[in-house]
Amino acid sequence: MNWRPAAFFPHVRTPFLIPAVGFALGIALTRYAGPSMADLYRLMGVFALAVLFSRHRRWYAAGLFCSLGAAVATMQQPGPPPLLDAGSGEVVLLEGCVVEPPAFFEDKEQFVLELAPGARVRAQLYLKEGETPPPLRYGQRVEVEAQVRPPRNFRNPGAFDYVAWLARRQIHWHATVRSGAAPRVLDGACGSPWMAWIYGLRAAVLERVEGTYSPDAYDVGLLQALLVGDSSRLERIWADHYRRTGTYHAIVVSGLHITVIGGVLVGLFRFLSMHRTAARLAAVAFVWIYAGMCGWQAPVVRSAGGFTLFAIGGFFFRKVRLANLLSVLALAFLISDPSQLFEASFQLTFLAVAALGGLAGPAAENGVAAMARGAWHIEDEGRDLHVAPRVAQFRVELRLIAETIHLCLKLPLRAAQCLVEAPGWGMMWSAEVFVVSAAVQFGLALPMILYFHRLSFSGLTANLVVTPLLTVAVPLGFVSLFSGWEWTAWCTRALVKIARLTAEWHAAWEPNLRVPDPPVWLGALFMASLLMLVIRRTKVWFGVSAALLLLMAVHPFPPHRQPGALEMTVTDVGQGDSVLIGFPDGKWMVVDGGGIPVFGNRARRTRMDIGEDVVTPYLLSRSIRKVDVLVNTHQHDDHAAGLVALMENFRPAELWVGATPPSEAYRQLHQAAARLGVTVRSMRQGPPFAFGGARMQVLAPTEEYEPRAAPSNNDSLVMRIEYGQHAFLLTGDVERQMEYAVADRVGRVDVLKVAHHGSKTSTTAALLDAARPAVAIISAGKDNLFRHPHPDVIARLEERRITTLRTDEWGLVTVRTDGRRLSMETNRWGLW
User: Lower CB density within 10 Å: C or N end of the chain?
Assistant: First the structure.
């Protein structure tokens, strides 16, 4: 019996496609259905017999690979994480091997220590101003005193599983090294000498980039990310310009970079008279070294594998079909690690290449690509007989233009033809890039919505400039580093500068279109229409796909909510506050936007924007596209740092603020409000008023309250919301002085949002006795440095038998009332 793949699929030109799809389907079924091993083995046996004795082998073989995928996924289920003999937040002495080269930020150094096989810790060493980081490198054994904590997720529905992402990289703890407690290098080396050499080369390249392109921080940050995948110097706002314009793929090391580098190397080796086979093998070796220099990032490794298969196919004089290449790569990587299937980078990598081959390739090859090839040698009229009619017509038109130039300007006819050929080719080449960019963005639309809630329109034109420029900048940048030639460095700077200006110009007019999660049925229909478009390639299926994409972008589906109910949802934002209020008439209010607390005299740069990265995805997961009111209780970072992002994403009609003193952050908030046309309302203590079908009352700040020179907790807005028989009280971060001032106005409430994350300076007995809440909700970070909530506060709540729900224990907490009944829900438990 012939066991080659083509024997199962004799009429299929890509015999590995169905096995790869079946294998991936088996992994997905294991994730969502969870069959036992015994069931899987029985299923495999049934399919194996069916393959042997059935005439319809292709479908049974697909089922066999499906069961194989389920079996592999089940056998490679991750075991329990390793244990560290230390409590969360405890200071311990760690000894291990540096297994990832350090990354340097503005005021910290980050590195990874391997304590034992499969047990790694990511350490951060904070530096004093002007302090030089210790010269750590791969393969050193070090000892360091650090405070360790397990990583945690933001426990909101649909949140990114950061803990699992780290666990796949064998990282199970975070460690904070205090300033002055530098790691001590021990005697003896560890790790692999081969990896030490590769990472040493990486460090040399990074140092060379900094030396060549300093003092321009943008050039240094972008080129370090572009050449070796180190984004530690890349500011978030710079990267956001590329994200918003759909050109972010051009600044990260990806398949395009590998293809360009591999192609340039093959051309160089062939120029040096190396044999074709030797040149390809040498290029493959260099590509894998380059993948190691980039830190073995998954997209780079997958691209290096694809280049290797392509080179092997060429060695055997085989035509490499893109679908076959993708299928073999997918099978290889999924067999080694089935959980890759659920990572965004894996899906985007394969979908992007599939869109290139299935949509962009046929569209360009039969259209503008053929026209671009036809733009050359227009003087040879005999070629017109061997091209498509429309290409021949294009060549005739170019000749007519050339003859017109010849007659008008008295140029030689051939010179006029050469003058026409280059613009004709350039026009068709630009159209080809436009088609390819549109096809890729079309094919990646659904994962871009699901993972990033974005659709880019400016990318259709931005990619025409940014992608070619930065693609050329990759080999040119390496030439400038290894040769030291100033002219190549100048050219690289120019390419980066033009790409930057292009991205910033497009980002300036790109609409900030944030798209909620589409319904499952709509996403499935869109993917099915794309598949039919690849198979049939007809205008009908293109129209169907475009209509479904438009439906996802417009998203005419109402937000997920209980009609006619008042809802208070305290989102898990770590050590901070962000509360979603849903009113009975359908209005939405967001109170605070969360943020990363800042300590010390100087602000440390953080790459995480809680408003953008945590609160926005949760709101979009509920199909909320518009917020009516945004509330800034007070101007502390853990409450206010995410407000600008929320204002840009959800365009509220009003921004409510309290008695906030001037500050740089407050000025930026007001500037954003003015730019977006948001009305700023200063709220003070006053009588109740109707809003959203409920009754609201601002209890603080009081009319006589005078804020300090710097923002403080007692600046906070305190609001009481009443609907039917129930009332909610939101307290910001007020402390005991302000609680005493408003206690006589609070009245009876059912739900209390505890002030200041449960600090001992708040939630006084006077307030609790005046409000007599049944439920108290505390927003606090897991194992936070402040040790919130304080035991005294918990004791006061327990004494009064108040049900207490904490985001550090329960994740997101929701309380709803229809005016008569009260219901509660958390991320861990369903409806109460």
Answer: N
